[in-house]
Amino acid sequence: MIPDTIIRPHAELAYAHELEALAAHDDRPRPANWRLSPWAVVTYLLGGKVGKTDIEPKYYGQRRLIEIAVATLATDRALLLLGIPGTAKTWVSEHLAAAISGDSTLMVQGTAGTNEESLRYGWNYARLLAEGPSDKALVPSPVMEGMRQGKLVRVEELTRLPADVQDTLITLLSEKTLPVPELNTEVQARRGFNLIATSNDRDKGVNELSAALRRRFNTVVLPLPATLEEEVTIVQNRVAALGKSLELPPEAAPLREIQRLVAIFRELRNGKTEDGREKLKSPTATLSTAELISVVHQGQSLAVHFGDGELRAHDLAAGITGAVVKDTGTDTIVWQEYLETVIKKREGWQDLYRACKELE
Question: Crossing angle for the helix pair 289-306 and 228-245, nearest 10 degrees?
């Protein structure tokens, strides 16, 4: 049982019943230390029906991309999930780890301040001073634990790691060995160990991967949703799932408002209206699906706590403006032009136009 006080349980807990059902019906070959076969992992990610259990889709997109990702992890090659923010890279990596290893918690979060110890190991300095280097004084990293246990390890935002820290992975991925010279020993990876890294290909100021490190990865690019309908479905499902933990009623997010919001984001992102008849300027923001979901949740909260409980245009207006206008110079102009040339003229959208104009 997951405690009601947990906002976001780990994937292996939140979807334990699905993983158990898949394991019970999975009679296909499994790589060493995998909880499920590659076929069952793909079914878990993309959805289906196993026995009497409905498997909820975790990812909406091309099946082949997920198949390639899973097949990569069944080899000795590491997997790099690449894409702009909001294309479900972290979401996919978490669910892959949950389905394959039954544990999505072995994770290193890449930042400019992440040091080499996060990928290798550290020390309990009190014990180190008292006893000297020893197994008890060693503090294993998630990577070391993954190697010992034969599990998947996740490295989020790989290109945010400093270049010298990135290069620590070269030996780990090539030799599948982590030397511990202080103890004159090493940790050798058990079968089942592999690494899933994610990287944002549009962020500025990141540390590019060296050619040597890039060769250690198979890269899968996760695209934005192909159609408006597909993106609406993603937003609906994620809003419903997250709304349960935040105790927001499902009726607080009408389909019509989600459709309008998705249309706005897609048109500004693509630089043209959905029918392709009119070209538009695009803002500096990426306007990802993840931001869409955040705007809906903010609007839901406003509607529930300060309105009549139903999401309306004036609940969404502030969130839309905040998502679009990241650079107050250029983005403000882009947003104002879009309001006047598209939203103002669109039939049935006058309430949204007025709500956005009132915020100026």
Answer: 50
94 touches 104 (CB < 8 A)? yes
Where would I find the H helices in the chain?
11-14, 16-25, 38-46, 63-73, 89-101, 125-131, 142-149, 163-166, 168-175, 211-214, 228-245, 255-270, 289-306, 313-324, 330-338, 350-358
pTM of this structure:
0.89
Angle at 272 between CA 228 and CA 222, to 5 degrees: 50
Closest CA to 32 of 232, 254, 167, 189: 189
Find where tokens 């004084």 sit. Answer: 137
CB 78 within 8 A of CB 216: yes
Q: How many C-beta atoms surround the C-beta of residue 168 within 10 A?
A: 20
How are beta strands 194-200 and 78-83 bridged, if at all? Answer: parallel
Task: Write out pLDDT tens, residues 4-14.
Answer: 677 788 999 99
Q: How far is CA 123 from the centre of its chain?
A: 31
User: Is residue 173 within 8 Å of residue 78, measured between CB atoms?
Assistant: yes
AA letter at 213: L
Q: 143-197: per-residue pLDDT in tens?
A: 999 999 999 999 999 999 998 899 899 989 999 999 999 999 999 999 999 999 9
Which one-letter amino acid corresponds to residue 163? Answer: A
Cα–Cα–Cα angle for 111, 100, 107, rounded to 5 degrees: 15
